[in-house]
Amino acid sequence: MQNTGTDTRPRYRERLAPSLWLLVTVAVAGPMVSLVFVPIGSTVALIVGAAVSALLVLTFVAATPVVSVEGAILRAGRAHIDVGHLGDPVALTGADARHARGPGLPARGWHLIRGGIDGIVVVPNLDVDDPVDAWTISTRTPDRLAAAIRAAQIGA
Questions:
Q1: Count of alpha carbons within 13 Å of 82, Cβ hemisphere only?
Q2: Could you say which of 1, 100, 145, 155 has the lowest number of CB atoms within 10 Å?
Q3: Dihedrals φ, ψ of 50, to 5°?
C-alpha cells in the first residue's frame, strides 16, 4: 500500500546554536556565583555554582532560533513567510556576507543574524503589501538553504 499523504518533512532545518566559546563563557558565571556563597558553606557554593552554570547553558541552547523550509514555508526563528512571495535567494560568505550584515543590510528588511555564523542568505520579498524589502538570515550552510528555498518555490 502506498502512502499518498503529502511529504511534511522539512527540506532544510538548522538550529543556530551558540558557539562553543560562548557556552564556555556563559558557564564561567557559575564559579563566580559560587564565590558569593562560600561564606555560607563550600558544599552549598559548589551546588549553587553548578546549578547556575547548567541553567545558563541550557537556557542559551534552548533559546536558539531554528531556520527551516517546510513545504512552501520559510521559517526563521518565530517569523515565517510563504516562498511564493520571495525572489531568488542569494547565498553569501566571507567579505560579501560581512557587507550584507553591515553596510548592505536593508533598513526595511527582516533580519535573523547570529554572531559567530559566517554565512548569510539574502532573499528579496516580492510581496507589495509587505513593508519588508528582504529577509537576511544567518546560516552555516548558505548554499543548502538557498537551494531549499528554490526547490520549495518550484514545488509551490
A1: 7
A2: 1
A3: -65, -40
Cα–Cα distance, 76 to 137 (Å, whole number): 7
pLDDT tens digits for range 49-79: 999 999 999 998 899 999 999 989 999 999 9
β-partners of residue 12 are 69
Residue (of 136, 132, 100) closest to 121 by Cα position: 136
Residue type, 130: D
Question: How would residue 23 be classed by pLDDT, with cut points 50, 70 and 90?
Answer: confident
pTM: 0.79
**How distant, in Å, are the alpha carbons of 2, 55, 116, 131, 138 from that of 99?**
49, 36, 15, 23, 13
Q: Which three cell numbers stand for residue 5?
A: 499523504
Distance (Å, whole) CA 39 – CA 77: 43
Q: Give the burial class of 31: count Cβ atoms within 10 A of its Cβ; 0-12 exposed, 13-18 middle, 19 or more buried.
A: middle
**Of the candidates 138, 151, 153, 152, which has an alpha carbon nearest to the alpha carbon of residue 14?**
138
Distance CA 145, CA 66 (A): 12
Q: How many CA atoms lie within 13 A of 98 on its CB side?
A: 2
